[in-house]
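Entry 14. Ran structure prediction on the chain below.
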Amino acid sequence: MGASPLDVDNTGTSHPDVENRSITRREMVQRQAVKTNVGSIKRILIIDNNAHRYVEYLKEMTGIEDILVCESYASLQRQVQGDCPEAVLAYKLPEGRFPREMLVNNPVIKWIQLGSAGVDHISPWDPQKLVVTNSSGVHGPHISQYVLAAMLSHNQRLMTYLSQKERRLWLRHDATLLSNQKVVVVGFGRIGRAVGEACRKQGMEVIGVNTTGRRVPEASCIVPARELASAVVDAHHVVITLPLTSETRGIVDQTVFEKMSPECFFIDVSRGGVVDAKCLLKYLKEGKIAGAALDVFEEEPLSDSDPLWTLPNVIITPHNSGDVDGWLDRVAEMFARNVSRNNAGLPLDNVVDPIRGY
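Output, structure tokens:
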């Protein structure tokens, strides 16, 4: 069978060992149905309010002068219909729901390059009419740094000290070394492997969870997805890096949380919906797990009435674990290379299969 969501992460990238396995006839038909080239591109529309940083670079690298910018969803329909771009570089803007229908249902648009690794906000689409590529490979190093920062914050008791500072309390607490601690990384694609490598360099025991249980060098050992619940037993940290698909929705549920120890710190850098949010909240409120660093939520922005905001053992970030200085430039570089590949008649990189979701 082909790569499963447990062998990829929210970059949508599978492990080579998985890609080399034989696939079923049904999956072969699915793969053949996904276009990997869209013909000549003469006009590009960028949906981004930071596009001024890289528009001239794209013009220079692609040789395409007709590159337009949309900085608001309010003007998107007018620009799409009036300017008729064949390709769109699309980022989520901070102004409400992503306008999926305007893009996937437009007959002129042949290719959408997403600024994100995840594609759940644009699914589904017809692969015979539209090619979607993601930014797989851009975010791994940044997210692994985020994960380490969250672990260190927990182990150094920084949340406790911040609380003490507000109350002007001078109390000491013992910290804990990461070395020799057990971390379980659920989803061992490119991001999962980057997280695993970073943790190994800290002397941690890295348990990776994928579909097959096949070994990879970034993990101390790999366990198959069917053993996810037993894998988290005695873990000091659990990190979720999965894409959101029909197979992964709600995969981290009661059966998994009940196996975690009260000392376990939970980190979610995947997609909202992979984790059972109600179950997570229950275990955090009741102290059945030590705490959490959460970067993704089922509804974003997170409502100001959500009880997660009130929990002292929870770190909340606004879905930006992969955002660091220069990441927009790296997406632009990836897009420029793909435009050049396309116009040379070569297959695009990072083409997403809408049936699998990665």
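Residues 140-316 form a domain with the Rossmann fold fold (CATH 3.40.50.720). Will compare against last week's run tomorrow.
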